[in-house]
Amino acid sequence: MSAFDRRQFLHLAGVGGAVFMSGLSGTARGADSMGAAKDEDFYFVQLSDCHWGFEGPPNPDARGTLPKAVASVNALAQMPDFIIFTGDLTHTTDDPKERRKRMAEFRGIVSELQVKNVRFIPGEHDASLDNGKAFKEFFGATNYTFEHKGVHFIVLDNVSDPGAKLGDEQLTWLADDLKKQAKDARIVVFAHRPLFDLYPQWDWATRDGAKAVDLLMPYDNVTVFYGHIHQEHHHMTVHIAHHSAKSLIFPLPVAGSQPKRTPLAWDPAQPYRGLGFREVEAEPKTAEYAITEMPVQKA
User: Fold this and answer.
1) In the 8-state DSSP scheme, what is residue 263?
2) How far is CA 45 from CA 118, 250, 291, in A?
3) What are phi and psi of 236, to 5 degrees?
């Protein structure tokens, strides 16, 4: 089923929320020696901010929401090419033993996903207290790249440094990677925190994120997907689109809408309101991405 057919099906079936189109049309690159699959349409699923180990009134079903999300993904009519979790897999704890226990439990739950191509990014709750040590033990590198059907994916770590920075070493790594890409390359960036200053007063920023954006700016087709702010949000820095994902534990208020960054109250009449995951349908030939927000379903 093509990306267009899937969008039409989702619309007709009334599945998920509104479809958000992202990206700018670019000149399609021809198929190379790897074959036509290079520019083939595909889709992936983004989940974020599970905070496994959290307990409290903002989510009375804190131990049930993640398994429900896994079941929802497994119930999709068509399996995605891959799944990515964009940070805060677990809720922070000062106890290194408890931190690893939560990571082991999280890994066990998501091992039930039918799609086995699953990738992970740390959030500050996973990594800022030990510079990502425990995360690396369970999930591997905190920043890396990979290729998929004509798209170059870049994973950035803006959480392992407790100062909320990428750091000079990682920025140099990013610059070196980008030098290998064509100006019209299809580039998707995953990070946990926003790379732009959304609302620094609430830690909704990366202190040197502007340096990363500057490195990305010369490339025509760049899209950024992130988490951290526990709500859907869309932003443009010139031609670069930034899209935040909903949380799987509790929603947070709109930036600056209240004095403190406290979770929105759980509504028993509408459980899981504001929570969810997203499908992202990629069309490499046109460098476009269709985002469909999917709710967490009751058991």
Assistant:
1) P
2) 9, 19, 10
3) -120, 130
> Angle at Cα 115 formed by Cα 128 and Cα 277, nearest 5°?
55
pLDDT of residue 12: 36
Tell me if residue 293 falls in helix, strand or coil. Answer: strand
What is the pLDDT averaged over residues 34-56?
85
Phi-psi region of 208 (alpha: psi -120 to 50; beta: other; left: phi over 0): alpha
Domain 3-11+40-295 has CATH 3.60.21.10: yes
Placement of tokens 């009134």 in the chain: 57
pLDDT digits (tens, 9 = 90+) for 188-242: 999 999 999 999 999 999 999 999 999 999 999 999 999 999 999 999 999 999 9
| Per-residue pLDDT at 49 exceeds 90 | yes
SS3 257: coil
Is 265's pLDDT higher than 60? Answer: yes
Q: What are phi and psi of 241, to 5 degrees?
A: -90, 140
3-state secondary structure of 222: strand
pLDDT at 297: 78
**Tokens for 274?**
């504001």
For the chain, the structural domain boundaries read 3-11+40-295
- Dihedral (Cα; 180, 195, 149, 14), 10-degree rounding: -170
Of 202, 199, 191, nearest to 160 (Cα)? 191
pLDDT, residue 298, reads 67
User: Which tokens go with 75?
Assistant: 């119930």
